[in-house]
Amino acid sequence: MERTRVLVVDDERNAVAPLAELLREEGYDVAVAADGVEGLTRAKLFKPHVALIDVNLPRMNGVQLRAELAQLPDPPSAIFLSVRRPPGAVAEDPFLVKPLDLARLFAMLAAMAVRRHGRTS
């Protein structure tokens, strides 16, 4: 069975490494990127099912990255990560406040996996 692929795009390296490790421990395939441009490049190669996107990214902010990802042939679902809902995000865009509530994050990822694959991770 194909595992759910999650792309984490965040420039806070101290937060990304532990989050990526937790996601791997939960059974997700994970790739990381440190800015919006790298995130878009990584997404084209990794083809994530879900992208966790920090709003305040260098080179291309999170809202711009989400718009670019939406243009891909099989666009990932997106969850914004920030201290508050980003301007330019639509109400349907899932959003998590930093610091992350991991139980809520995993519940959101599981729900997205079910919608996409009919199962979790």
The rounded Rg comes to: 13 Å
Count of helices?
4
How helical, in percent, are the residues? 25-40%
Give a quick account of the main beta sheet: strands, pairing sense, barrel closure. Answer: 5 strands, parallel
Uncertain spans, ≥5 residues at pLDDT below 50?
none
Strand order of the largest sheet: 2-1-3-4-5
For the record, the count of structural domains works out to: 1
What's the name of the CATH homologous superfamily? Answer: Response regulator
> What percent strand?
15-25%
The CATH class turns out to be Alpha Beta
Give a short overview.
Helix content is 40%, strand content 20%.
Task: Describe the 3D structure.
This protein has 121 residues and is of the alpha/beta class. The chain contains four helices and five strands, in the order βαβαβαββα. The protein has helices at residues 13-25, 36-46, 62-69, 102-117; strands spanning 5-9, 29-33, 50-54, 77-82, 95-97. Strands 2-1-3-4-5 form a five-stranded parallel beta sheet, with helices on both faces. Helix 3 (62-69) links the parallel strand 3 (50-54) and strand 4 (77-82). The radius of gyration is 13 Å and the shape is globular. The termini are close together.
